[in-house]
Give the backbone structure.
Amino acid sequence: MVQAKKVSLYVAIVFVLYVIITDPAKAADYVQIGFEGISSAAKSVGDFMTWVVNGGK
């Protein structure tokens, strides 16, 4: 099972490098989309925690 994880990790790394080398603009778009998603999720968690601290009002 450990071998399968290593192989899948190497395949993922090779794929990422392939995308970056063949189309850097599209790779930058993917990174931007990822960071926007993470930012949105963090904001939502912050809003929820604020709501909880305020007593659910």
About this structure: The radius of gyration is 18 Å. The CA atoms of residues 1 and 22 lie 32 Å apart. The longest helix spans residues 24-53.
